[in-house]
Amino acid sequence: MENKKNLEYLDKYYSLKSIGNSIDYLSKKIKRIRAHVNPFKFLDKHQFEGFKNNNPIIIDIGCAKAEFIFELYKKLKNYNFIGFEVRPLMIKYLEQEFEKYKNIIFFSGNAQNNLINIIEPNLKKNIKIEYIFINFPDPWIKTKHIKRRIINKEFLNQIYQLFEKYNVKTKIIIQTDVDFMFNDIKEQIINSKYEKYTLFDKPIFNIQTKWEIDSIKKKKTIYRLLI
User: Fold this and answer.
1) Is 138 a catalytic residue?
2) Maximum C-alpha span of the chain
3) DSSP-assigned letter for residue 146
4) Is 166 helix (H, G, I), strand (E, B) or coil?
5) Cα separation values, 194 from 111, 122, 153, 157, 190, Å
6) For the residues of 183-216, what is the DSSP string, one character each?
7) Residue 36 confidence (pLDDT) above 90
8) What H or E segment, with its residue span, contains residue 3?
9) Domains of the chain with bracketed CATH
10) What DSSP element (H or E) covers 224?
11) Which one from 24, 44, 138, 201 is the annotated catalytic residue?
């Protein structure tokens, strides 16, 4: 019932007409959707044969309200964009709001279950996966929930092996404002087949996520790395 009420609210008060006016195009109209969702409850397997062009692809894992993807789109219109978001309600509405953008697509559920089968058909066609962004992932601070973190050795190894198979060099950008989470991410990378990472200071393409903007206002440190 709660999800239905949220959708009714969104349908009534939000229109795509405002999408180009502000990075807050969705944030101001959407009611709060639950922030923490267990990714393991979603077992769906998605299939995607690719876009109707051979343009390079940028992927955003945990795209939330897709402000970041939309800002990328405005700068990089010759790219295709794939957004993963664990919350089905958010995806349902992003699909509606971005319907006219044929080079942007969203998938719901657990990205760990779907990233490989979404990416591989494109790699088979020699389409370049330029970047994978994982921006401010849920730190899942309780010990019993650590296994829910999106960045772990097994997931990184899956990605590494896929890109090695097709001999491609995709940049993976990870950003967080949680120091202990950043330390764990670095440890997971070192223990994976990637083994190393590069730290950097400035946001890629000079685009900040909504979360980053809010964190900076709160005087939080932003940690960034590239693998």
Assistant:
1) yes
2) 49
3) G
4) coil
5) 19, 22, 9, 8, 7
6) HHHHHHHHTSSS---EE--SPGGG---HHHHHHH
7) no
8) helix 2-13
9) 2-226 (3.40.50.150)
10) strand 223-226
11) 138
Q: What is the residue type of 88?
A: P
Q: Strand, coil or helix: what is 56? A: coil
Take residue 162 and report the two structure tokens written for it: 């896929």
Torsion angle (degrees, nearest 10) of CA 171, 174, 175, 178: -160
Query: Rounded CA gap, 16 and 201, in Å?
Result: 34
Question: Residue 84: which H helix or E strand, with range?
Answer: strand 80-85
Q: Report the relative pairing of strands 198-199 and 223-226 from DSSP bridges.
A: antiparallel
| Tens-digit pLDDT profile for residues 118-134 | 999 999 999 999 999 99
Nearest-CA neighbor of 163 among 203, 130, 114? 130
What pLDDT, in 10s, does the model give residues 139-179?
Answer: 866 776 577 688 999 999 999 999 999 999 999 999 999 99
DSSP secondary structure string for all residues of 170-186? -EEEEEES-HHHHHHHH
193: tokens are: 């087949």
Tokens of 147: 């296994």
Q: Contact 91/26 with Cβ under 8 angstroms? A: no
The sheet with strand 80-85 has its strands ordered as 104-108, 80-85, 57-61, 129-135, 171-176, 223-226, 198-199
Contact between 128 and 56 (Cβ < 8 Å): yes
What are the CA-CA distances from residue 101 to residues 85, 94, 95, 182 (Å)? 18, 11, 10, 34
